[in-house]
Amino acid sequence: MPELERPAFSVQEASLLLEKHYGLRCTLEKLPGERDSNFMARENNGDSYVLKISNSCETLEFLQVQHDALERSAKLLEQGRIPKVFPDKNGESLLRVSSADGSLHWMRLVRYVDGLPMAEYSPHTAEFLRELGRMCGTVTKALHEIPAPPLSHTLLWEMHNVQETLHEYMSWIKDEKLLGWVKSSLELYCKTLEPLESKLRRGWIHNDFNDYNVLVVPKLTVTPVLGLIDFGDMTHSYLAAEPAVACAYAMLDKPDPLEAAVLLIRGFHQHFPLEEKELEILFPMIMMRLCLSLTLGAFQQQNDPENEYLGISQKPVRELLERLQEVNPRYANYLFRDACNMEACPASFEFRKWYKKTAGAFHGLLGEPLNPEKTAVLDLSVGSSLSAKTEGVSLEKQQEIFNGYLSEMKAEIGVGKYAEARSFYAAKEFLNNSLDGHEKRTIHLGIDIFAPSGTSIYAPIEGVVHQLQDNQSLLDYGPTVILRHKFTDGPEFYTLYGHLSSDCLKTLQIGQVIKGGMPLDKIGNSNENGGWLPHVHFQLILDLFDFDGNYPGVALPSRKKVWSSICPDPGIMLGLSSESTAVEIDSGKLLKRRKNVFGPSLSLSYQEPLIIVRGQAQSLIDSRGQFYLDCVNNVAHVGHSHPEIVKAQSNQAHVLNTNTRYLNPVNIEYAERLCALFPEPLDTCFMVCSGSEANELAMRIAGTVSGQKDMIVLEEAYHGNSKANIDISPYKHNGPGGKGPPEWVHEIPMPYLYRGLYRDPETAGKLYADEVRKICEKLSAQGKKPAVFICESMLGCGGQVPLPDGFLKQSYQHVRRHGGLCIADEVQVGFGRAGKHFWSFELQDVVPDIVTLGKPIGNGHPLSAVITTLKIAEAFANGMEYFNTFGGNHVSCSVGMAVLDIMEKEGLRQNALETGSWLKEKLEALKNSFPLIGDVRGEGFFLGVELVLDSETREPAPLQADYVVERMKSRKILLSTEGPGHNVLKFKPPMVFNLNDAQHFLAELEKVLGESPLRQGLKV
After folding, report:
1. 42 conformational bin, left if phi > 0, alpha if psi -120 to 50, beta if neither
2. Is residue 561 a contact partner of residue 490, using CB atoms and an 8 Å limit?
3. β-pairing verdict for 821-825 and 850-853
4. β-strand 519-522 against 456-458: which pairing, if any?
5. Using CA atoms, how far apart are residues 976 and 69, in angstroms rounded to an integer?
């Protein structure tokens, strides 16, 4: 076949043609291709071109159409994203050349379009795919208006000839399984196309938005810039084929191919609206493009076995075609309709009309209408206390909590809401792989009626038993009945009844007519209903698809709108009000409300803030029930919402919660246990409510005892949010909005081995300590003494920096020799976080005069402390009373004791040591693969990963750090940045973070570090 024979031109021949006709002397490189011969041509000045010598079967008229398409597309897209034709010496855009065998070919030169092939670019994010769709829609808009009539020009890749092409070349497929997929896909296409073909729009299309024709210029902070090349497969065909081809390639190697297609179609529709009929044929067309690729690939590879380009996509194409065999075409159509802002399920129009007309004529699910006075609508959403209390406990305990709640509400029946996002669907069956990790199916598609097991269930409306099945798996439906309903004045639909008793499997038969109001079965018990509390799950269904007795009862949040169209709200049929339908939190409205009441200096994390409604161990959970691995919230020291913490808090709150003016064993016992964790002579404590209060009190103590005011601090230090703490926090007073330090605050360079003033680990500790000595000597020369030297035992805001060996020991010696006291700020880094020791100052083999602790000791409860010696405490008692209204209250101290118990019982310090050491070692190893990582440092669960642009100069990479944080958040892992260069990834998770979490974190970080935007502009 002529169109499969590429023009025979060598690099040398092409180079001579380029110089002869264009006056360009370039370095040439042959490019891969299927039908044409293409050469990359680079000038010494950096300008680049592509010399294209067309297949001998190409006509002048068709090439002129291509040039028209290039010009039209270039007008609508960003400059440089479409090849621009470069004229020859005579101003001609096309010229005739002959090959060695005498064949004539058209030759042209176009400007090179920069970028990586889409196949080699990552990540294919949701926004990337929408942008790809937008570009595809824009090009379609430009091309379909080309006035030239269709030419007598045919290609193997044309969608309007796909049936003939597949029938002709199918015999080249030797794999029977693959051949079966191609045949069944073709059958679906023909069946779908037949009634639609005359209604489908036609026009010129690019026809080859494949993953090597789409080029990507990576960007760190915005959506990457996309370009498009190779208009050689243009054809006059169905316009719907354009997004179909683009989808076929965008879906390759995706964890959820339909997700990728939906995103692309959404972007396409924004720039070139698709019609309903086009959406109906779109999924079969996607299948046809894959079948063409595999069928022609089988032929071409045998015809030209040495051409690697021909087989470059065959494996992923085959895998995708196999996966799509399991997709119901109607479901795909519903997704595509929703992407184009149409009602997902067309049958819902007729159903809603009938539903509204029939309202009030339904029989009660429990025989009688639900009595509002004896019925309580339950909140089982992600952020509800009822949901949190009943998760992770036995069924007996769940029932006890549930019964207590109904009793409190003076109700006998509980109603679980429709469209509610729930967090207790935890089994692997509820997980879906998506572009950014797992997405959990959490949106409830039915209404639950909670009543005792054995309660009779009645059919609300006449129907026929359509499916009957026992779904026995844990957390499944158990015995399930699906009735089919069809009325002369309404649509066909189905009702599902889950969690029934096993009797229904014996008493009902497929095809049996069930009259409205007729007993159907009874509510099953927990041993037969999938392991749930007794209830019936009732659901309306407009399309059963291919499910057989085990229809989905929960949906992905990202597809809530689609499934709400397929499974409408059953509340009307049950006689319930709108109260039984959950209302999703609107992030935009919530943000507006926040801005109306909170000061503007209160920041939010991430470009798109998260709506976090619950915490659980090492996870934060958003309003849609999606779990985020928390790697930064160290205040939840033993894990978010630890049940033992909740229990201790609740128990003590029932008894007493007041101040320390009264004798009580609770706060005394806690203080004894806390002080016992410190080395001698640290044996006396003051209870406060926060780390800021602790540091402020520590300064007050030091100033009173020493009689001095001057304080020595570290560059980039942060010690709290009060005025006095801002004064001693260069991180704040030298930053935006700050006014610098007061005259009594003296700053030394941050002891920072990687980018600091002194970097030799053998001498750095002494040299940084000498900076402390110099300040002490300067004060002494002025007749002053330092009141205090305050230093975090590992530096937080400075960038997760461990101190050089010997720094604290020698600094303490200098300060004490000059009459000052030494404060160790352990607010972030204490309480076992370092792993090797309980307190991070022990890493430096010192004992401070005063230690300050923050809210991690109370797992976020208002509990903090100042620990010092009895001698210093007595010196502080100068007659002025110290009193803190709520410091040392009994509830907080009870929580503090629970934290100590959990730390010991769960071995959390040892966990920080072992898991933190493993993770640090693995992060260090990543430096070999990713030059962006300049330094890995820290101890235990207090680690820092510093990103740099240049391994020699160690120039910070803040944009790259922000990129990593945002991408990890999209992968449902929470990180943040620190350091003076805002380029350090900080890691300080709850102490229950485990080895599985560390492995997951590492794997996701490695993926992100390998993404294309992070590989640009680095100097190794």
Report:
1. beta
2. no
3. parallel
4. antiparallel
5. 46
Strands (E), 54-192: 85-86, 95-98, 104-111, 116-117
Let me know if 854 is exposed, middle or buried by CB neighbors in 10 A (0-12, 13-18, 19+).
Answer: buried
pLDDT over 70 at 426, yes or no: no
**733: which 2 tokens?**
């007073």
Residue type, 294: L
Q: Among candidates 286, 294, 267, which has minimal Cα distance to 333?
A: 286
Those residues with Cβ within 8 angstroms of residue 387's Cβ, 6 or more apart along the chain or in another chain: 379, 380, 381, 422, 423, 424
Q: Which residues pair with 946 in a beta bridge?
A: 935, 984
CB atoms within 10 A of CB 785: 17
Classify each residue of 287-298 as buried b or exposed e, where b means 16 or more C-beta atoms within 10 Å of its C-beta: bbbbbbbbbbbb
Main-chain dihedrals φ then ψ at residue 986, nearest 5 degrees: -100, 140
Q: What is the 3 state secondary structure string of 159-207?
A: HHHHHHHHHHHHHHCCCHHHHHHHHHHHHHHHHHHCCCHHHCCEEEECC
Strand, coil or helix: what is 414? strand
DSSP 948: B
CA 955 to chain centre: 29
Question: How many residues in the chain?
Answer: 1020
Lookup: tokens for 724: 């006095």
How many other CB atoms are there within 10 angstroms of residue 133's CB atom? 29
Pairing of strands 478-485, 493-498: antiparallel
Looking at per-residue confidence, does 363 or 359 come out higher? Answer: 363
Residue among 832, 1014, 846 at smallest CA distance from 933: 1014
Paired with 226 in beta bridges are 216
Please provide the average confidence, as pLDDT, over all residues in the chain: 94
- CA R_g for the chain: 35
Determine the angle formed by the axes of helices 257-271 and 241-250, rounding to 10 degrees: 140
CA atoms lying within 13 Å on the CB side of residue 445: 26
Question: Which helix (H) or strand (E) is 24 found in, with range?
Answer: none
The residue among 343, 355, 379, 539 whose CA lies nearest residue 445 is 539
Question: Across-strand partners of 96?
Answer: 106
Tokens standing for 291?
């079948």
Residue type for position 209: F
* Cα 180 to Cα 187: distance, rounded to the nearest angstrom: 11
Within 8 A by CB and 6+ apart from 598, the residues are none
Question: 3-state DSSP call for residue 376?
Answer: strand
10 Å CB burial of residue 61 (0-12, 13-18, 19+) is exposed
User: Which of 119-133, 298-312, 927-941, 1005-1019 is least confident?
Assistant: 298-312
Closest CA to 732 of 748, 746, 713, 719: 719
pTM: 0.95
Token pair, residue 585, equals 């939190």
SS3 of 442-481:
CEECCEEEECCCCCEEECCCCEEEEEEEEECCCCCCEEEE
C-alpha distances out from residue 536 to 368, 401, 499, 787, Å: 15, 19, 5, 70
Q: Which helix H or strand E contains 51, and what residues bound it?
A: strand 48-53
Residues 6+ apart with CB under 8 A from 114: 48, 80, 215, 217, 227
Q: Which two tokens stand for residue 835?
A: 């792993």
Q: Decide if pLDDT at 519 tops 90.
A: yes
Of the chain, the end-to-end C-alpha distance in Å amounts to 49
**Among all chains, which residue has been given the structure tokens 């305990």?**
397
Contacts of 254 (CB under 8 A, 6+ apart): 124, 260, 435
Residue type, 928: N
Query: Quick check: 318 and 294 in contact, CB under 8 A?
Result: yes
| Tokens 């992600």, located at residue | 382
Measured distance CA(450)–CA(383) in Å, rounded: 20
pLDDT at 633 over 60: yes
Strand 535-541 with 493-498, pairing: antiparallel
Cis peptide before 273 (omega within 30 of 0): no
